[in-house]
């Protein structure tokens, strides 16, 4: 198994609630992760904690180099 190094990955996204109301627009977060999937998972978990809502969704997710 190869040792995967973490890198800084920039994720830009919108946050929607259960009713599709936009809670955040063009949120920009830099994450230290091994791949983009891990970065998106981390951002999603952080937004759920931040808004204290399990039903939020990320929309228009972009990975920036």
Structural topology:
Elements: E1 7-16, E2 22-33, H1 36-51, E3 57-64
Antiparallel strand pairs: 1-2, 1-3
Task: Explain how this protein is built.
A three-stranded antiparallel sheet has the order 2-1-3, covered by helices on one side. It has one helix and three strands; from the N terminus they run ββαβ. With 65 residues, the chain is α+β, with helices and mostly antiparallel strands. The protein is 25% helix and 46% strand.
Low-confidence region ranges? none
Proportion of helical residues: 10-25%
Q: Taking strands numbered 1, 2, ... along the chain, how are they ordered across the largest sheet?
A: 2-1-3
Helix/sheet category: alpha+beta
Individual helix count:
1
Profile the largest sheet.
3 strands, antiparallel
Termini distance?
26 Å
> Helices and strands, in N-to-C order?
EEHE
Short recap of the structure:
The chain has 65 residues and is α+β, with helices and mostly antiparallel strands. It is built from 1 helix and 3 strands; from the N terminus they run E-E-H-E.
Features:
65 residues, alpha+beta, 1 helix
């Amino acid at each position: 198994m190869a040792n995967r190094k973490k890198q800084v990955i920039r994720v830009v996204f919108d946050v929607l609630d259960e009713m599709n109301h936009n809670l955040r627009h063009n949120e920009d977060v830099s994450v230290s992760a091994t791949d983009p999937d891990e970065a998106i998972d981390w951002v999603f978990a952080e937004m759920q904690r931040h808004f204290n809502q399990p039903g939020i969704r990320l929309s228009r997710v972009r990975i920036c180099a």
